[in-house]
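Sequence and fold:
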Amino acid sequence: MKIEINNVAHGALIAAAIPRPYDAAHSMVISRVTSEGNCMGGVIYDDYTVGCIFMHQASFSKNWLTGNMMWMVFDYPFNQLGVRKVAGVVNSRNEELLAFNQRLGFKEEARIKDAYADGDMIILTMERADCRWLKIKPKVYGEDPRDE
């Protein structure tokens, strides 16, 4: 299995699952794929402001997030772009996704009441200093050696 960068078909698939608009010209995608090329899950980055970028993830397999994938997901915004923080939005009614993001290290920074038809919009952020995933170093960039 491997990790792909900017696969437009994967970006569209991830965006449809969120759901969220996807603009391949202004977004970045990191996806993990099976040996057959099927998308297991991935992250779309958009709304880059130099100091911050938004991340949006979707999964299609329980095993899509490995240490190597986590390192790549956070290496791009923090090390390659140099942002101070990454952000994402979650519907307050989606308790499972909220808990998942909090386990990753995201913290609630803001809440917009009634932004969704059925709940509040929670804006989660993570600062570089709080990102434990950057301590992981991949053995092979773009591939996950644990899958062999």
